Every structure is written in C-alpha cells, then in structure tokens.
Amino acid sequence: HLNLPGYPLFILRGARGYDSTYLVSLTTNSKPIGVLRLINLRAQRKEPDVGMPYTIGTPQERLDREWIAYHQASASSALKLSPSPLWRRHDALLCEYLPYPALQNELEQHPERAWALLARTAKAIAELHQRGLTHMDVSLANMLEDKETGNIYFIDFEYSPARNINSAT
Question: What are the residues facing 38 on neighbouring strands?
Fold first, then answer.
C-alpha cells in the first residue's frame, strides 16, 4: 500500500491515549521515512468535560481533520508548519518524518528560556491561524523545532473545536 522499495519496519514510538504511533523505515539502521498513526477502532474515548473548547470526534473525523490540517500547514514552500501527509486509509495516516525534538524537551532542559520559547511559539501559532487552522491540543509536546533554521512544526491535529466554537468566539 505504501509503494516502498521493500518491506517496511514499524517501530512503536508511542501509544498514549487511544492511538499508536510508529516510526516507519526500511531497515533497522535506516532513517525513518514516515510516522504512522494507527487508530484503535475498538477503543472508546471519554467525551470531554462540558465547557471544554474541543471535541474528540469519531476515528474517521479525527483522521480527516489531521489529514486536512497537514495538507494546509505543509502547503507553503516558504514556511512549512507541519510534516507533509503521505498516505492514509480509514484507520491510519502516514506523514513525513521530521527528525526534530519536541519543544517540551527544550523547556524541561532549559526552563530559564521559557519566555523566549513562548515568544517564538506564539509567532508560529499566529502563522498557523493565518492559514485558517486552529490546533486544539497546542502544547510544546506537539511542536517540533529545527534547531538549524528555527522553524517550528506542529503535529497531532486530531482534536476539533467544540461545536459552539467558531472564529468569532
């Protein structure tokens, strides 16, 4: 299904919540070619508390949102804001692998840089909003940074704004 020149190797990267995330490569020593999010269709998610600004949605809605967000956020050749989407089906999505650390790591290692870090991320969030995207789980754990260029990339767009949230609210 992935049109690869060999059989892929899937390395479990995380299974927080209800999805599993895998690094996909061709051999154990090769650079990963993508990150696969596999939806557990049997897992039942608890609805968010009343008054929360996000909704979780069905597995299909979550993948649809993430697929569209990755397309919109990675579309600009001048400033990509997310990995490029590569492939999907009803229960899985594969996006480009970006070898950058989460900004959460920087905050934990250098808490004295918190204000500078927040200023940089606020600019990236504003750019995301200019593209018509709202990240409903925006956190430093869902933001990667290329240390050479300073570019910030967003991942994990699965949550949607709650039904009563719109651009005016």
Answer: 20, 92
Q: What pLDDT score does 15 carry?
A: 61
Any residues with CB less than 8 A from the CB of 122 and at least 6 apart, and which?
none
pLDDT tens, position by position, 121-137: 999 999 999 999 999 99
Could you tell me the two tokens for 5?
């020149």
Look up residue 43 and give its amino acid. A
DSSP single-letter state for residue 140: G
Half-sphere exposure of 140 (CA within 13 A, CB side): 15
Distance in angstroms (rounded) separating the CA atoms of residues 144 and 75? 17
| pLDDT surpassing 70 at residue 47 | yes
Strand segments, DSSP code E, in the chain are 9-14, 19-25, 34-39, 54-55, 85-89, 92-96, 143-145, 152-154, 160-161
* Amino acid (one-letter) located at 147: K
In whole angstroms, what is the distance from residue 3 CA to residue 46 CA? 36
pLDDT in the model for residue 169: 53
Phi/psi at 89 (nearest 5 deg)? Answer: -145, -170
The single-letter code of the amino acid at 108 is E
For position 77, what pLDDT does the model report? 76
